[in-house]
Amino acid sequence: MENVVEADGLKKWFPVRRGLADIILRRPPKFIRAVDGVSFAIKRGEIFCLAGESGCGKTTTGRLILRLEEPTAGRILFKGVDITNLDGEELIEFRRKAQIIFQDPYESLNPHMRVIDIISEPLSIHKLAHNREEVIERVTKTLEDVALKPPEEFMYRYPHELSGGQRQRVAIARAIILQPEFIVADEPVSMLDMSIRAEILDLMLGIRDRYGIAYLFITHDLAVAKHICDRIAIMYLGKVVELGEATEVIDNPLHPYTKALTAAIPVPDPRVKIGEIPIKGEVPSPINPPSGCRFHPRCPYAMDICSKKEPGLKDVEKGRKVACHLYG
Amino acid sequence: MLLEVKDLRMYYEVGDGVFVKAVDGVSFNLDREEALGIVGESGCGKSSLAITILRILPSNARVLGGEVLLDGVDILRLDEHRLRKEVRWRKISMVFQGSMNALNPIIKVGDQIAEAIMLHEKVSKKDAYRRAEELLSLVGIDPSRVSSYPFELSGGQRQRVMIAMALALNPKVLIADEPTTALDVIVQAQTLKLIKELQSRLKLSLMLISHDISVVAEMSDKVAVMYAGKIVEYGPAVEVLLQPKHPYTTALLKSVPSIRESKRKLAYIPGVPPNLVNPPSGCRFHPRCPYAMDICREKEPNLKEVGEHHLAACHLYR
User: Fold this and answer.
1) Which residue from A minimizes the CA distance to B219?
2) CB distance from B293 to chain A under 8 Å?
3) Chain A to chain B Cβ contacts (< 8 Å)
4) Is residue A328 part of a domain?
């Protein structure tokens, strides 16, 4: 199957603000290595998950791919074409095909705009609607796509008149009205109550099936990821440590970090308790990440080589990659 | 019985004669050394329930009835002075949601813990500090950290400081409102284990409030499920979570993904939780319930025994 999006060695280093003393003493500038060499490919119609704890770089990766941040290094390919340095008309053209859904539907919708104006804004930005009738027609169809029915009832409401789930549907409608081929969904259901989460996820799956849209699904919740995603990449301190089929990676984790992460997740069964979590300490700073494997200071299996040499992301079985010296 | 809550009602007044019925006839018991999980979605009244028990309420809150019996004494009827002197923090204390961000950023954590102790007990500054050090080591933080500022601690450590502070006066009941919601999953697991360990070591009764059924399943002996200001199901955790009887509990559990089960289509509950200014007549869940009958619109169901120590408020069971 053809790749819609490819990340190739993506890096994003944010400079740390230097104080006067740093400048006078000519201390070298420091960087937060938010994303530090990330590669993966997303296929057409695939739901690809980026998962990890806060600060692991998953959101920045999503923003890099959409060109909302400029990468420090690496390339982004969209349908085989390098878009890392696109600008002007070509960048606008790309933005028609790649959209984003944010985490918080209370923040991501302009409270002064009505639903019809929010959803049709991409049409006017890209000059794709020629008159009001066309706008109403496109918005009506999109509202039906996200199951806000009857559309004429929702069209003229303001965000504050909608529930959280309805707002997120509006955000999804805004993302799909241009018929994109790729959507970055950054924690799209984390703010929503459990009972309506599945409804929004279901809607996203339905849209994928209907239009063949590929998703980059960013989440910290591996339980959701397991039930929604096709493949998953686990990130730790700016790097992908494990990548493969979502059910495989979660049911049979290979990287010691993935093992700890999956072991720490509680389940809704009172007979099953969280086991021992074999790792020590907390996530170190991304400013001066540990040498070698970044996970080695916390890893129960750390060997000499782990502090010296950084493990590459290598194939260990078909479709499964792990960055760990324990494997080959 | 250590804590008995009977028919507790607390409404928020949001306008002339307009009330949000946040806690509307809630009854439950908490035994000594027992862990009770209170689970429900946002706006179901679970946090309001906690602050009503401790009476740390905003000015528009109206406690309209019920009893909160602590060792047989109705603390709802105690005056503010006695409540503060004898109950709050001393017998019942609380860890709040996101409370790790409530630490004063410019005061050392030791000072903040010692201050809480000195406010309630006549002890010297030195003794208060010694106690602060003990409390820090109790929650697994190096006692030398008394002289750290909050920003020098990680989120997980700050949450531990808040737990230490809640335990400063040896309470019998600890109310933990979403104690791990803002934490990453590994730190969450460590914090939950700490709370469990402290509970058994200090013989605490725990009231854990969470929207996360998995966290409640991890921690609780008993579970109460809240919906629209009421407890709709209540009983031993294994009963409520494995043999749910109320349609809301059943539907809620189907919507929760588990990392241990095989990939499945997640179910959801159609509609949205009701507005608590004008909750639906009869059973408040009836507009979303797949089994709704005529009686559900007309008559409010009471909690009835549906199994051993297992109660559900549903007309399906009579």
Assistant:
1) A270
2) no
3) 125
4) no
B15 touches chain A (CB under 8 A): no
A159, A187 Cβ separation under 8 angstroms = no
Residue A316 included in any domain: yes
Give the helix ranges, DSSP H, for chain A. 20-24, 58-65, 88-97, 115-125, 132-145, 151-154, 164-176, 194-211, 222-228, 246-251, 256-263, 304-308
Separation of alpha carbons A52 and A58, rounded Å: 7
Nearest to B186 among A193, A196, A264 (CB): A264
What CATH code is carried by the domain that includes residue A313? 3.40.50.300
pLDDT tens digit string along A230-276?
A: 999 999 999 999 999 999 999 999 999 999 999 999 999 999 999 98
Count of the separate structural domains present in chain A: 1
- Domain of A277 in residue numbering reads as 3-322
Which amino acid, one-letter code, is at A205? L
Contact A235, A50 (CB under 8 A): yes
In a domain, A327, yes or no: no
CA distances from A194 to A165, A244, A250 (A): 11, 27, 21
ipTM of the complex: 0.91
Give this prediction's pTM: 0.93
Q: How many helices (H) and strands (E) does chain A have?
A: 12, 12
Alpha carbons A249 and A226: distance in angstroms, whole number? 9
Per-residue pLDDT tens digits for B255-265: 999 999 999 98
The model's pLDDT over A20-59, given as tens digits with 9 standing for 90+, comes to 988 899 888 899 999 999 999 999 999 999 999 999 999 9
Dihedral sign, CA of A77, A63, A196, A223?
Answer: positive
Q: Which amino acid is residue B216, in one-letter code?
A: V
Rounded Cα distance between B95 and B101, Å, is: 12
Instruction: Judge: B211–A196 Cβ closer than 8 Å, yes or no.
Output: no
Does any domain span residue A125?
Answer: yes
> Of the candidates B189, B252, B255, which has its C-beta nearest A274's C-beta?
B189
Q: Above 90 in pLDDT, residue B95?
A: yes
